[in-house]
Design a protein that fits this description.
By secondary structure, the protein is an all-alpha fold. It has helices at residues 8-18, 24-55, 60-67, 71-78, 88-103, 111-119, 125-134, 137-147, 164-179, 187-196, 201-208, 213-232.
């Protein structure tokens, strides 16, 4: 068994169980998608502990030694990036957005993929807010899939770029966090960021589901205040 208590046999059995009718070539494609997702999660795991070590005063030389690379390589790979303040759940939603783009064979990550990623993280506040309003995960998924462009010819390997409107939505997520006086960027802030990009597919989907930017902002603010009060008591 691996340190995560997951074996190769486990991964094979799960893929075979989920794709019982797929041929070998289709299973290769799916295996590659899962390989990329695991790699992305692994990178985020290392980033998490690099960030903790840096905040505790570790030097880049020490971090590089712990990873097994040079100081320069460690700094290039793990220096704070655009997702530095994102919570683990929100980072996972971004991984799911990347996976959604690959699954649909798109060569970009759009706001619709980001929304699908938020829907794929049921532990996040964004999911709770979406479900409280619509009461149907399938309804939201159907609306997202309907808004997506047709699938491409083949799934991309490696990096998939964010569309400009997606980058702006992520920037707006950080601004939404700052507007609310928070020092983290959670799934709830990403949801607010999406609806702020008014002409984006995700914002249109959210409006069609009955959300407005002001209402969503107030819902998030109220829910976080309620949770903070509950923790204090």
């Amino acid at each position: 068994m691996s340190p995560l208590n997951i074996s190769l046999a486990d991964l094979i059995a799960r893929l075979d169980e989920e794709l019982p009718d797929a041929d070998d070539l289709a299973r290769i494609s799916e295996a590659q998608l899962r390989n990329q997702t695991l790699a992305d999660l692994g990178d985020q795991l290392v980033d998490h502990y690099v960030g903790k070590a840096k905040r505790a005063g570790a030097s880049w030389s020490e971090v590089g030694e712990a990873i097994g690379v040079s100081k320069q390589a460690a700094q290039q790979r793990h220096a704070p990036g655009p997702f530095e303040r994102f919570t683990d759940l929100n980072r996972h939603s971004i991984v799911l957005a990347q996976e959604a783009a690959r699954t649909h064979k798109h060569d970009f990550i759009g706001t619709e993929h980001i929304l699908l990623g938020l829907l794929g993280e049921p532990r996040g506040l964004a999911y709770e807010v979406l479900m409280a309003k619509t009461e149907s995960e399938q309804r939201i998924r159907d609306a997202i899939v309907e808004a997506m462009p047709p699938a491409g010819q083949k799934a991309l390997r490696g990096h998939i770029a964010f569309r400009p409107e997606s980058k702006e939505a992520l920037d707006q997520a950080s601004r939404a966090s700052a507007d609310l006086g928070h020092d983290w960027v959670g799934t709830e802030h990403s949801l607010l960021g999406l609806i702020r990009i008014e002409e984006s597919p995700a914002a249109q989907i959210l409006r069609n589901l009955g959300f407005t930017s002001d209402e969503l902002h107030e819902t998030v603010r109220t829910e976080i205040t309620r949770r903070s009060a509950a923790r204090d008591t």
